[in-house]
Amino acid sequence: MGNYNNTVVQPVEETIREQWFQEAIRDRDVDLFLVAGHVPVRSKEYAAIFKTIRAEQWDTPIQFFGGHTHIRDYVRYDSKAYALESGRYMETIGFMSIEGLATGGKTNSLSAQTIASPTFSRRYIDNNLFSFHHHTGLNTTTFPTAHGTNVSALISSARKSLGLDSRFGCAPTDLWTNRVPYPGNSSIFTWLEESVLPNIGHDSKRGDKPRLLIINTGAIRFDIFKGPFTRDSTYSVSPFTSGFRYIKDVPYSLAKGVLPIINRA
Predict the structure, then answer these.
(1) What φ, ψ does residue 72 adopt, rounded to 5°?
(2) Are the CB atoms for 57 and 25 separated by under 8 Å?
(3) How far is it, in rounded angstroms, from Cα 248 to Cα 203?
(4) Taking residues 98-122, what's their average pLDDT?
(5) Is the pLDDT of residue 149 over 70?
(6) What is the pLDDT, as a whole number, of residue 246?
(7) Which of 84, 100, 108, 215 registers the highest number of CB atoms within 10 A of its CB?
(8) What confidence score (pLDDT) does residue 104 get?
(9) Which of 18, 25, 85, 24 is nearest to 51 (CA)?
(10) What is the sign of the dihedral through the CA atoms of 170, 229, 92 and 215?
(11) Distance between CA 42 and CA 85 in Å, rounded?
(12) 222 near 177, Cβ under 8 Å?
C-alpha cells in the first residue's frame, strides 16, 4: 500500500468494524459526528464511514473534512451530512458552519423543526492578510496579536538561519502548474520539457543515443513567479530530494511501455 515496513496501514473497511468505532457510533448522546482525514471527500473510504454511521444513527448530523486531492470540494451525502475539502498547501482556509445544531444530546432546548433541519454553510477564504482583515472586520493595526507577532518573528529568524532568501537567479516570466493549458509558453511543464529535462538527461559520452526521461507530474508542486528565484522557491516548486534513476541501453520496445504502466498504477 506504499507504506514502510515499520508501519501498518489498516483499511477503513476494517477499522469501522472494530469495537471502539461501533461503540462510538451507537452513543445516543452525540450531537454531531465529526470525521477528519487525509482522504478525498468523494472516496469509497468516506462513503463506507457514512453508510456505517447512518446504519446506527439515521438522523444525527455528520461533518466530514477531507484532503489529498488538493482541490476545493464540497459533497452532500444527505440533508444532514456534508463534506468539505479546502484546497492545497494552505492556500485556502476552509470555513464551515452549521446553524440549528442540537446540543446537549437528545434532550435540548431547540425546537423539533430546528433540529430536523440544520443549515450547513461553507466559505473558502484565500490565505492572505487582506482576506483575514475582511472576514474579521479588523485592519493592519487591530488584526495582529502579540502571539502572532512573536510567531512571525520566529519564522523570519528561521528563514534567515536556513538561508531561504538567498538568490539563485531571476525568473524572467511566470510559469504556472495549472492556471494555463499544457502545452503552452506559460506552462511550467512545457518549460520543464523543453528547457530543463534535455540538459539534465544529457550524457556527452552517449550523445548519439536517444533518451527517454520520465518524471511524475506531482514532482512539480507549485508555480514559479517572475522575479527573484530563491532557495525558498526551490522548496516550494519541488520539495523533494530524490533524483533520477539511469538505465542505459534499454530496448525502445520495452522502454515505451513504462509510462502507460505507471499511469495505470
Answers:
(1) -85, 125
(2) yes
(3) 11
(4) 72
(5) yes
(6) 84
(7) 84
(8) 67
(9) 25
(10) positive
(11) 10
(12) yes
Supply 117's cell numbers.
Answer: 433541519
Q: What mean pLDDT comes out for the span 141-161?
A: 97
> What is residue 133's predicted lDDT score, i.e. its pLDDT?
96
**Does residue 166 contact residue 231 with C-beta atoms inside 8 Å?**
yes
DSSP per-residue codes, 122-168: EEEEESSHHHHHHHHT--TTTS--HHHHHHHHHHHHHHHHHTTT-EE
Cell of 195: 528547457
Residue 69: half-sphere exposure toward Cβ, Cα within 13 Å: 14
Cα 257 to Cα 214, 250, 251, 261, 263: the distances in Å are 12, 11, 11, 6, 10
Cα of first residue to Cα of last residue in the chain, in angstroms, is 12
CA–chain centroid gap for 93, Å, is: 12
Higher-confidence position of 241 and 107? 241
Residue 229, C-alpha cell as written in the block: 528565484
State the Cα–Cα distance between residues 83 and 68, nearest whole angstrom. 13
pLDDT in tens, 191-218: 999 999 888 767 778 878 888 888 888 8
If we measure between CA atoms, which residue out of 78, 118, 87 comes closest to residue 100?
118
